[in-house]
Design goal:
Helices cover 16% and strands 33% of the residues. The protein is an alpha+beta fold and 817 residues long. The strands form seven sheets. Strands 6, 7, 8, 9, 11, 12, 14, 15, 18 and 19 form a ten-stranded antiparallel sheet that branches. A nine-stranded antiparallel sheet has the order 1-2-3-4-5-10-17-16-13, with no helix packed on it.
Length: 817
């Protein structure tokens, strides 16, 4: 064999070997004074002389991040430091990859560690960090920034938008501000209409001991980006020891579609934090709202005997045929200085009027059993770390600083003015932890379905004083919910009212987003609607209670329907602030159309979020690429600014809601306010609440609807088929997704549509179809009384009517000619 052929063959074998299945998809190596980590899409080069790093798009070399620095405990290494690197395997719930671990050292200084991580089949960067204490004294690490650099240097910021990733009651909003600082995460996105967009998603990845912050500033030479974490107490690192954090960060610079970029982030966040938010799919009746004068305004039943009485009356309405209902007893007595909090036992629950345990249900077990036997699910309420003086005096060793009267340095955060000035329970203290484990064991044994934690910032111990010397403030706060999550077990609702941020991901199931209210207003739905990528994915948003008598516009049925619809679509809980048996029959019926709550980890996209509207009005839930639930929400009114305070929201609204025409270009790209439908494809559209067929549209059409004041119009969209097909039901606003195990199937040989649906006993189930040019011959069901009839014969739209004596899965067949 000639030498040149032998050489060429050897090169081919070398290339084949390098690309073979046994070679890692992520490579770590040193080249020209830089430590490199790279995979198919990303290349990160850390300059071992300057301590800065760049991130590039590997296929074309495009600069994504330039001159990024890192900093720990206010120390930023530079060219005067020495650097060493190591390649470490990466294997966790997110997949396989490699870590480039950088250690910066300097005489008289600690060792600072930055870890840059790439996964084999993902195009985001993960970051971790660490600290080596070389001093003879313990050090508290209070902050760390893993990236401070310029993203997309030289970018032309055409149509620039930012979206914060805040939690709690912060008003999440899309703006065009040059500067955005956000807790948790943020999105910065830009790109002219008709052009491929750019999206940058920066955020926390895993949570245990620190809160995380992101900042994006539009500057002349690009997007100044900073990602860091903080804690008021910090992490203790002992002398001659190294701390490697588990609080990681996430950065996606390559997913161009802004919706897909955030949805990917939400999914990764759920995996990384091992999120399981399975639990209640039913409404929960709140016994505080129901009796408060300016909310429900009904009789006081917030005690064990009253809740059982209300449960009995609820059962008599027949509403339980739609599923169970939660009964939230709220032991929220505001007696001072002693109360139920901290004790959380039968003896102390029986002592105070708010949420009192009364005979014959004077124990948790008796009360919970009675609620279960009536078809309900018992829920409780804790005031997080509100102290009770008698508990503090009895167990000072369970208190922060082991002191029953240690004063707060900064006032009673999380409580009202003049509230507790002293620090409260230590959720890292072994004795108090054992007490809480016993509390939750008793709740679990009784079958308590969940606990709401009010005044959560009473547990934000910014002064420290923990029995665990290595605990941060954020870690101790997270432990409050972790103890409950583990103690109550799977499927229970751990409800954080309004906390500090995403530090509780993985140990809560519900996150409250509003102060006290029992209404629905556009800012509320916008707040959680713009968090769609987290809602039902890493937690269920809770907008607080709902009272249909306070629905806007007052006295209208479409207002009641809008209240339930928008709560369903933009949150994951349905808390009710009116006794169910006090609701009109039509209100009960409309509430039943949004139950059960679906458990799939997906929420509707706010399609028009980046169009300049004050509050999104178009929400799309893509169930499949051929099946969408599209909602238009009319937010138009005569006012200027919606009420945001407690008093403003329980006062009658003087301004008027107005009618509005809303349109959607079906074929526009999904990141330009459309659904991305193909121009030549046809789609059937059905209006759920108004029970009407809206027609057939092509992907090049605009869907235009005229909405009544405050109306939420829910429409099912199905891609048209050449054979008969299903369109909708009258049972649930998701129109087949919840009440059917699958869409009806067309049998071309038999010319049949075959399907099944969960019926409600003694309630006519209506299913709507398009014949698509065929003729109905017969309909049949072995389990139900069945008939059919035309809705619009000219357009080939018909209904199948099924009635059963009890709830059951009912199969049906429709034969065609």
């Amino acid at each position: 064999m000639p030498d040149y052929i032998r050489f060429f063959t050897a090169c081919l074998l070398l290339i084949a070997s390098a690309c073979g299945p046994d070679q890692p998809a992520v490579h770590v190596y040193e080249e020209e004074g830089a430590a490199i980590i790279e995979q198919e899409q990303l290349r990160i080069a850390f300059d071992l002389s300057t301590g800065k790093y760049d991130i590039n798009h590997r296929p074309d070399g495009k600069a994504l991040i330039r001159g990024a620095a890192f900093q720990i405990n206010d120390l930023q290494p530079d060219s005067t430091w020495q650097y060493e690197w190591a390649a470490l395997p990466l294997q966790d719930s997110l997949g396989s990859g490699q870590t480039l671990s950088i250690k910066a050292t300097k005489s008289g200084q600690p060792g600072l560690i930055l870890q840059l991580q790439l996964y084999e089949n993902a195009h985001y960067v993960a970051f971790n960090w660490g600290y080596q204490n070389t001093s003879p004294r313990p050090v508290q690490v209070k902050n760390a920034a893993v990236l401070s650099g310029v993203a997309y240097p030289g970018a032309a910021f055409r149509d620039y938008y930012v979206l914060d990733g805040e939690s709690n009651d912060y008003q999440t909003v899309v703006t065009q501000a040059d500067t955005l600082l956000s807790t948790n995460n943020l999105l910065a996105t830009w790109g002219a209409k008709g052009q491929t967009k750019t999206a940058v998603v920066a955020g926390g990845l895993t949570y245990l001991e620190f809160l995380k912050y992101m900042e994006a500033i539009k500057v002349e030479d690009g997007l100044q980006l900073r990602m860091w974490l903080e804690d008021p107490v910090g992490k203790r690192v002992d002398p001659d020891s190294t701390f490697l954090s588990t609080d990681r960060f996430y950065l996606d610079l390559l997913t161009s579609n802004r919706y897909e970029a955030l949805e990917q982030y939400g999914q990764v966040l759920a995996k990384a934090n091992k999120v399981d938010i399975s639990g209640p799919d039913y409404a929960i009746l709140n016994f505080w709202y129901a009796y408060i004068r300016y909310y429900g305004g009904d009789e006081f039943l917030n005690n064990t005997s009253g809740t059982v009485e209300a449960m009995e009356k609820t059962a008599q309405t027949g509403f339980l045929k739609y599923g169970p209902i939660g009964i939230r007893l709220e032991p929220d007595d505001y007696a001072m200085p002693n109360n139920q909090q901290g004790w959380w036992d039968d003896e102390h629950w029986a002592m105070y009027e708010g949420g009192q345990f009364l005979p014959p249900y004077e124990t948790l077990n008796k009360w919970a059993e009675a609620i279960h036997n009536l078809g309900g699910r018992p829920f409780l309420y804790f005031q997080t770390a509100r102290r009770s003086e008698d508990y503090a005096l009895a167990y000072p060793e369970h208190m922060l600083f082991n002191d029953a009267h240690r004063e707060r340095s900064g006032g009673p955060e999380g409580w009202w003015e003049g509230g507790d000035r002293y620090w409260s329970y230590d959720f890292t203290d072994p004795g108090f932890v054992a007490h809480m484990e016993d509390v939750y064991a008793r709740l679990r044994k009784a079958g308590v379905a969940g606990v709401k934690y009010d005044y959560p910032l009473t547990g934000w111990a910014y002064d420290g004083g923990f029995e665990d010397p290595y605990a941060t403030t954020a870690y101790a706060y997270r432990r409050i919910y972790e103890l409950a999550y583990d103690g109550l077990g799977p499927g229970r609702d751990i409800h954080e009212r309004m906390g500090k941020g995403d530090i509780t991901l993985g140990v809560i199931t519900t996150h409250r987003t509003e102060g006290d209210n029992d209404v629905v207003m556009p800012p509320m739905t916008a707040k959680t609607g713009l968090r769609w990528y987290k809602n039902r994915v890493v937690y269920h948003c809770d907008q607080d209670a709902r009272n249909p008598y306070n629905a806007l516009p007052y006295g209208s049925r479409h207002g009641v329907r809008a209240m339930f619809t928008m709560t369903y679509l933009t949150s994951g809980r349905m808390e009710i602030g009116k006794y169910l048996y006090k609701m009109a029959d039509t209100m009960q019926y409309d509430l039943s159309r949004v139950l059960p709550l679906h458990q799939t980890p997906v929420s509707p996209r706010p399609v028009d979020a980046f169009s300049g509207v004050d509050y999104p009005q178009v929400y799309d839930l893509s169930l499949t690429d051929q099946w969408h639930i599209l909602t238009f929400y009319n937010t138009r009114w005569t006012g200027q600014e919606w009420p945001s305070t407690l008093k403003g929201r329980y006062k009658k609204l003087e301004e008027k809601l107005l009618p509005q025409t809303i349109g959607l270009p079906l074929g526009a790209p999904t990141d330009e306010g459309g659904l991305g439908f193909a121009a030549g494809q046809l789609f059937h559209v059905w209006d759920f609440w108004n029970t009407r067929y809206l027609g057939t549209y092509s992907g090049s059409d605009s869907l235009i609807q005229h909405l009544a004041p405050g109306e939420a119009r829910v429409m099912a969209i199905h891609a048209a088929t050449p054979h008969p097909q299903f369109l909708s039901t009258n049972r649930h606003i998701l129109q087949g997704y919840v009440e059917m195990p699958g869409l009806p199937v067309w049998d071309a040989q038999q010319k049949q549509l075959q399907g099944s649906v969960e019926t409600i006993g003694e309630e006519e189930m209506q299913l709507f179809f398009s014949a698509n040019g065929s003729t109905v011959r017969t309909v049949k069901s072995d389990a139900a009384a069945v008939r059919w009839g035309w809705i619009d014969e000219e357009k080939g739209i018909f209904a199948l009517y099924l009635t059963t004596t009890a709830n059951q899965l009912c199969a049906f067949t429709i034969d065609f000619e």
